[in-house]
Structures are given as structure tokens and as C-alpha cells.
Amino acid sequence: MAVQSPPQEFNLDITKEVLRVLDEVLSLQGRSAAFTRDTPLLGAIPELDSMAVVTLITTLEEQFGLTIDDDDIDGATFATVGSLADFVSSKMSA
Fold first, then answer.
1. For 1-94, where are the alpha helices, taking DSSP H only?
2. Cα gap 63→74, rounded to integer Å
3. Each residue's pLDDT tens digit, 72-93
4. Phi first, then psi: what are they for 80, rounded to 5°?
5. For the whole model, what pTM was predicted?
6. What are phi and psi of 40, to 5 degrees?
7. Which superfamily does CATH assign the domain made up of 9-27+35-93 to?
8. Which distant-in-sequence residues (6+ apart) come within 8 Å of 87 by Cβ?
9. Which residues neighbour 12 within 8 Å (Cβ) at sequence distance 6 or greater?
10. For residue range 21-31, what is the model confidence (pLDDT) as tens digits?
């Protein structure tokens, strides 16, 4: 049985919310408005250091009602805005 993808508008809403959380947690002062799903995160945004990653994970858990285990996360999760939004989406549908 094939796994159905969430509707496109669902993914767009999650991406929009992830961008809002990024802007808030990293104090980007609206810079995230210019980000796309392809915008690199880890290693490309100076504000996204190891402490910010922890805060970001905690905030995503609170905002989306998720539980994120350490084993769920690797560098690829934070590679781009899209990879982070897809991760959140997959956790929500799990």
C-alpha cells in the first residue's frame, strides 16, 4: 500500500509556519520572508548554531504538538527550509 502525500496546501502551510518559527527563534527580523524551500539552513545561516537548533526543535515540538527524539534528527533535517518542513510534516502524519 502506497503512502499518500499530504495535500499540497498542507505542505505550504507547514512551510509557512516553519518559516515563522525560524524567524522567531533565530531573531531574523523578517529575513525569513525571502526564504524558499530551497534556502539552505545549517551552515548557511550564522544564527543557526547548535544552541539555536535545540531551541528550534523545542519550539517546533510546542508549536506542532510533536515529540522529536534525538534519533529522528540528523544534519539532513536542517539542510534546507524544505527538508525541515518535510520533517515536521512527516512527524505530524506519523
1. 8-25, 50-64, 81-93
2. 20
3. 999 999 999 999 999 999 998 8
4. -140, 170
5. 0.86
6. -70, 145
7. ACP-like (1.10.1200.10)
8. 72, 77
9. none
10. 999 999 999 99
